[in-house]
Design a protein that fits this description.
Its EC number is 7.1.1.1. The protein has 384 residues and is an alpha/beta fold. Helix 6 packs parallel to helix 7. Bound molecules: nicotinamide-adenine-dinucleotide. The site of nicotinamide-adenine-dinucleotide has 29 residues, from helix 6 and helix 7.
Length: 384
C-alpha cells in the first residue's frame, strides 16, 4: 500500500500530515511512503529526514500520488482552479483520503464523483476510544498555548508581578473566554506565565475545570445554561436573552483586563460575538485581544480574520487564523500521530491494508464517501 504525503498548498498552512517518525511507523506496518519534496520543510522536517526514515521523496505531487492507495492531508486537496496544482485530479480512483476536509455537501459530492473514499477527521466522534486520533483536541491544545504566548509577546508589560528594587510591576489580568480544549490550555499557560487569570464558559462542567486550573470563574448562570451542553460535549446555541445577560456580566469584567483570549465556538455555526465594539472601547490602551475563533468569524466584533489590528483607543487585536499552524512543528507531530493512530486502529495485519468497517462508530462518524457515493449521515440523502 502506497501512502502519499503532499506539500500543503493552501494559504498560511505550514503543517504536514506525516513526520519522519510517523513515516517510519507506516513503513513498519508494511506500507511504502511517498513524500512530496519539501512537504515537511515549513514544519522543520527535511527531505533527508524522511528519506532516512525509509520514505521515497517524490519530486512533485503527481509523482507522490501515482499509484497511491492512501493520502494523508492536513487540509482539503486543491481542486481545479484553486492553485498551481489540481491535486484532486491526480488522486487515483479508489484511493482513501484522510484529513481535515471541510465536510460539506459540495466537497463530499466532488470526492464521490472522483471515486475517492474521503474521511473527514474533524468529524471524529468524541468518544474515549477516539481520543488518540482527535485532531480537533490536539490542534486546539496547541492553539491555546500559542495564543497566550503571542498575546504575552504583544503585551507591552509582562504577565507576572515583578518586584524589583526599582519598584513593582503588577501582574497582568488575563481573561479566557471559552474553556474547552484550547481555553483550558490557555488558562494553564497564562497561569504558568504568572498572569492573574479568570475565565468563562457556558457549559456547566466548565466552571469546575476552570477552578481546578487555579483561575477564577466569571459568568452568568441560569436555568438555560444548566443544559447548555450537547450529548457530544459541545456548547449549544443559546437564546438571545441568555447572550445579552452573559454580555452584561462580561462587560464589567473586560474593562479591567489586560489580555483577553477568546476561544468560544458553537459547532457548525459562526462563532458567537462575546466581545462587542463597546467592550473593546472600554479597555485600556495597550490591552490585547487574541481571537482564536477567527477561523469561524471571530468572537470579537472588531476582529479582522487573518490580521493584527489596533483600534483607535489602542487595543491590539490578534485575529490570525489557523493558530495551530503558527506552531507547526508541534502541531504536525501531533496531527501526524492522530492520523497514524486512525490508520493503525483499522489496520488488517494479514491483508496489510485498512479494514474500515462501515458499522464502526469512528468510521461512521468520519466517512464522507465510499465507492462513489456520499455516505455521511449528515450529508447523504435520507434513506427512503
Ligand atoms: P469548542 O472548540 O467547540 O468550543 C470551545 C469552548 O467555547 C467550549 O468549551 C464551549 O462551551 C465554549 N463556548 C461556546 N459558546 C460560548 C459562549 N457564549 N461563552 C463562553 N464560552 C462559550 O469545544 P472543544 O474545546 O472542542 O471541547 C468541548 C468539550 O468537549 C469540552 O468539554 C472537552 O473537554 C470535550 N472533549 C471531549 C473529548 C472526549 O474524547 N471525550 C475530546 C475532546 C473534547
Amino acid at each position: 500500500m502506497r501512502v502519499a504525503i503532499l506539500k500543503e498548498r493552501r494559504a498560511c498552512e505550514a503543517r504536514v500530515a506525516a513526520t519522519p517518525e510517523t513515516a517510519k511507523k507506516l513503513i513498519a506496518l508494511g506500507c511504502t511512503v511517498a513524500v512530496e519534496a519539501g512537504a515537511g520543510l515549513a514544519s522543520g522536517f527535511t527531505d533527508a529526514a524522511y528519506a532516512e526514515a525509509g520514505a521515497e521523496v517524490a519530486p512533485d505531487a503527481a509523482a507522490a500520488l501515482a499509484d497511491a492507495a492512501i493520502i494523508f492531508k492536513v487540509r482539503a486537496p486543491l481542486g481545479t482552479g484553486e492553485g498551481e496544482v489540481d491535486e484532486l485530479a491526480l488522486i487515483p480512483r479508489g484511493a482513501i483520503l484522510i484529513g481535515t476536509l471541510g465536510a460539506d455537501a459540495a466537497a463530499a459530492g466532488t470526492y464521490a464523483s472522483l471515486g475517492i473514499d474521503a474521511y473527514a477527521m474533524e468529524l471524529l466522534p468524541r468518544i474515549t476510544r477516539a481520543q488518540s486520533m482527535d485532531i480537533l483536541s490536539s490542534q486546539a491544545n496547541l492553539a491555546g498555548y500559542r495564543a497566550v504566548v503571542e498575546g504575552a509577546a504583544a503585551f507591552d508589560r509582562g504577565f507576572p508581578m515583578l518586584m524589583t528594587a526599582a519598584g513593582t510591576i503588577p501582574a497582568a489580568n488575563v481573561f479566557i473566554m471559552g474553556a474547552g480544549v484550547a481555553g483550558l490550555q490557555a488558562i494553564a499557560t497564562a497561569r504558568r506565565l504568572g498572569g492573574r487569570v479568570s475565565a468563562t464558559d457556558v457549559r456547566p462542567a466548565a466552571k469546575e475545570e476552570i477552578k481546578s486550573l487555579g483561575a477564577s470563574f466569571v459568568g452568568y448562570e441560569d436555568e438555560e445554561s444548566k443544559s447548555a451542553q450537547t450529548a457530544g460535549g459541545y456548547a449549544k446555541q443559546l437564546s438571545a436573552d441568555f447572550y445579552a445577560k452573559q454580555a452584561e456580566v462580561v462587560a464589567a469584567h473586560i474593562a479591567k483586563q489586560d489580555v483577553v483570549v477568546t476561544t468560544a465556538l458553537v459547532q457548525g455555526r459562526k462563532a458567537p460575538i462575546l466581545v462587542t465594539a463597546a467592550m473593546v472601547e472600554s479597555m485600556k490602551p495597550g490591552s490585547i485581544i487574541v481571537d482564536i475563533a477567527s477561523d469561524a468569524g471571530g468572537n470579537c466584533a472588531l476582529t479582522t480574520p487573518g490580521e493584527r489590528t489596533t483600534t483607535d483607543n489602542g487595543v491590539t487585536i490578534l485575529g490570525y487564523t489557523n493558530w495551530p499552524g503558527r506552531i507547526p512543528a508541534a502541531a504536525s507531530a501531533l496531527y501526524a500521530r492522530n492520523l497514524l493512530t486512525f490508520l493503525t486502529t483499522f489496520w488488517d495485519k494479514e491483508a496489510k491494508a485498512p479494514k474500515l468497517s462501515p458499522e464502526d462508530d469512528i468510521v461512521k462518524g468520519t466517512a464522507l464517501t465510499r465507492a462513489g457515493a456520499v455516505v455521511h449521515p449528515s450529508l447523504a440523502p435520507a434513506a427512503a
